[in-house]
Amino acid sequence: MRANPFESRLERLARTLTEQFGVQVICQGDNAWTDGQKIVLPSVPQPLDQDLEKCLIGYLDHEMGHVAFSDFGVAEQFTKSHPGCEGLLNVIEDALIERRAMERWHAVEVGQTKPAS
Fold first, then answer.
1. What is the spatial distance between Cα 43 and Cα 72, in angstroms, rounded to a whole number?
2. For the purposes of burial, counting CB atoms within 10 Å of the CB of 23, is it exposed (0-12), middle (13-18) or buried (19 or more)?
3. What angle separates helix 72-81 from helix 86-104, to the nearest 10 degrees?
4. How far apart are CA 95 and CA 67, in angstroms?
5. Which pLDDT score, from 0 to 100, does residue 81 have?
6. In angstroms, rounded to a whole number, what is the distance separating the alpha carbons of residues 28 and 42?
7. Sheet holding 33-34: strands in order across?
8. Contact indicator for 14, 24 with CB cutoff of 8 Å
9. Exposed (0-12), middle (13-18) or buried (19+): which is 68, by Cβ within 10 Å?
10. In whole angstroms, what is the distance from residue 82 CA to residue 39 CA?
11. In this predicted structure, what is the pLDDT of residue 101?
12. What does DSSP say about strands 24-27 and 33-34: parallel, antiparallel, or unpaired?
């Protein structure tokens, strides 16, 4: 059993993501990113408070949006054609994938609290 209970939940979620999308979820380092086949979330300190847990779930939602909606081949071509502009592409793409994620998965809350229905 892992020392970090949130990582254990992520491991259970990772099995589902692997079955549905072929995506591996791991916690290591201090950044969140994906290459389309692996999602890396930051390692988390103990104790894990509710706000930090929400933050990590937000990272996971965001990176799953990239897996579902990003074209990694186009991003790679852009990076090769326009060195130094990766950040600009990422900012634009982040806004697009977050909108698409919220439209597709209504439970996803990106940077806001949903109003009660």
1. 25
2. buried
3. 160
4. 14
5. 95
6. 5
7. 24-27, 38-41, 33-34
8. yes
9. middle
10. 25
11. 87
12. unpaired
pTM of the model: 0.74
User: Model confidence over 105-116: pLDDT tens digits?
Assistant: 776 655 444 444
CA angle 43, 30, 10 (to 5 degrees): 35
Beta-strand runs (E) in 15-99: 24-27, 33-34, 38-41
Looking at the chain, the whole-number percentage of residues with pLDDT higher than 90 is 32
Contact 20, 51 (CB under 8 A): no
Paired tokens of 68: 């579902």
User: What is the mean predicted confidence (pLDDT) over 2-26?
Assistant: 67
Which residues fall within 8 angstroms of residue 40, CB to CB, at 6 or more apart? 26, 27, 28, 29, 31, 32, 33, 34
Strand locations in the chain, DSSP E?
24-27, 33-34, 38-41
Residues in the chain: 117
